[in-house]
Input
Amino acid sequence: MLNSAKIKSFFVEIGELTYFGQRFFKELFSKPFEFKELLKQCYNIGNKSLLLVGVTGFIIGLVMTLQTRPTLEEFGAESWMPSMVSISIIREIGPVIIALTFAGRIASGIGAELGSMRVTEQIDAMEVSGTNPFKYLVVTRVLAATIMLPILVIVGDTIALYGSYLIENAKGDVSFLLYFNKVFNSLEFGDIIPATIKTYFFGFAIGLVGCFKGYNCKKGTVGVGVAANSAVVFSSMLLFIIDFIAVFVTDIFFEI
Output
């Protein structure tokens, strides 16, 4: 009985999230357009995440190179290091890890912010005053997350490659020009385009789930913490599902 109740509540939540997403697209193309609030949210989300994404990307580059180099040295294939690291980071490791970091920072923040506004009846007050709280609070945040995550992933990937270069320079005395020549020679559009496109879906999922959990927060102040926590868990799970679908589709159209 307990398992069936959990399964039922899970599918109910999936249905509610789907309806929430449909409402987002309906409100997205209706007036008025909250450009000022959108720009504000883009700045807040990007500014809050930039340092964390930079540190994460730098550590990814360092760890990838340090872990992989000894194995390649055994086969005398150190020259393949820039190509292998760059393809791994650009295609998969960079977007997924940075998106998970972004989810932990942004989905929880949005869930807690909107959840606190819900339990303190600020959202109800906006509805009474004639303001559309869904358009002002939800649409702007989901759009901002969708726009900013791809930019942050590009920044994180760049910093990760620079971190990898530092290890290669220290261990193998590889120059900056030689390292990045090998990086760009190994990358193709089939590596960059699908990896960039799926980050938009990552950002949309993170923003939508964070807003959904916060906007529908219940059970008073305790529910705020639950909303923030469940937003991270749910969005992280969605990221892996979206990533699997993206890799599957990429494999068909780009023949990895």
Summary: The chain is about 90% helix and 0% strand. The chain has a mean pLDDT of 87. Residues 35-74 form the longest helix (40 residues). Residues 119 and 220 are 5 Å apart (CA to CA).
